[in-house]
């Protein structure tokens, strides 16, 4: 019993800035070659790994808008845009964003140490007429606790 109280007293004595030490790493969502006249959407996945030490409590993970808005993301190849979206589930029905425009954030919690890998489910809708080339977008991942 005395050890638990000592550990609790030690954690409470740490400065706020020293409590949580977290890092976020990402594996990008990389789509295969898009065929503009294909009848089906193009799907792919990526991931985000969160690693925290001395973190106690709840957190949320948000995805920024990139080159469009969180509700209507777009990759660019010069002036040409290709619509796509990022989702929280394999069913690709819930848009992962910042909680605005019908999007959701992903919650979690940590008790001292945690590592969590979150899958990002991407989709490029079918039948978009675009020119050939490489289409890119950059999404900011934010973990708030």
UniProtKB/TrEMBL annotation:
Key word Transmembrane helix present: no
Pfam families assigned to the protein according to its UniProt record, in alphabetical order: SCPU
Signal peptide: 1-20
Domain Spore coat protein U/FanG residues, every copy: 12-142
Keywords, in A-Z order: Capsid protein, Signal, Virion
InterPro entries named in the record: Spore_coat_component, Spore_coat_U/FanG
Keyword Transport found: no
Domain of life assignment: Bacteria
Name of this chain's protein: Spore coat protein U domain-containing protein
The species this protein was found in: Neoroseomonas terrae
